[in-house]
Each structure stands twice: as C-alpha cells, then as structure tokens.
C-alpha cells in the first residue's frame, strides 16, 4: 500500500498530466475548427488524435479518482484514531 505522501505526489502528477491532456485537446479542437476546408485524410488524422486524447483523459480520470479515494481512506483512518 502506498503512503499518504506517495499518494499526494501521484495525485499532483496526475493533475499535471490532466492539465496537459486538456491543453492538447483544446489545441486540437481549435485546429479542427480551423480546418473546415482541409482534406479528408488530414481531418481523419486529427479526429483519431482527438479520440486518442479523450481515451487518455478518461483513463487518467479513473486513476485520479482511485488515488483520491485512497487519500480519503487515509483521512478516514486518521479520524478513527481516538486521541489519548
């Protein structure tokens, strides 16, 4: 089992990765909007890239959710310890 500090570090890294994925997705969506007259092959490549980014984001959100649940488990176990 990971330590609380390791989970916090993992959470921060996942949030940073999520931010990068969202920026890449936003940039790609902007490119797709600007390519209204682009050839079909290029548009298809951009759509495939967008789908890949969205799958990566979904997977990252699952891992982030599990990390946050683990962090909450640490919080819950701390609250169960009665002070002396």
Explain what the structure shows.
86% of the residues lie in helices and 0% in strands. The chain has a single domain, classed as Orthogonal Bundle (Helix Hairpins), CATH 1.10.287. The relative contact order is 0.14. It has helices at 4-34, 40-80.
Mean pLDDT: 85
CATH overall fold name:
Helix Hairpins
What is the succession of H and E elements? HH
- Our count of domains comes out at 1
Q: Say how many strands there are.
A: 0
Structural class: mainly alpha
Give the helix level as a range of percent.
Answer: over 70%
Overall radius of gyration: 19 Å
Q: Can you tell me the CATH architecture?
A: Orthogonal Bundle
Count, helices: 2
Biggest sheet architecture: none
Q: Report the span from N to C terminus.
A: 27 Å
Q: Beta-strand level of the residues, as a percent range?
A: under 5%
List the helices and strands and how they pair.
Blueprint: H1 4-34, H2 40-80
Helix pairs in contact: 1-2
């Amino acid at each position: 089992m990971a330590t609380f500090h390791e989970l916090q570090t993992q959470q921060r890294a996942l949030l940073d990765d999520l931010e990068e994925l969202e920026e890449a997705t936003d940039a790609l969506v902007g490119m797709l909007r600007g390519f209204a007259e682009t050839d079909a092959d290029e548009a298809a490549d951009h759509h495939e890239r967008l789908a890949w980014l969205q799958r990566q984001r979904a997977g990252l959100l699952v891992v982030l959710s599990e990390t946050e649940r683990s962090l909450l488990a640490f919080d819950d176990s701390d609250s169960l310890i009665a002070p002396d």
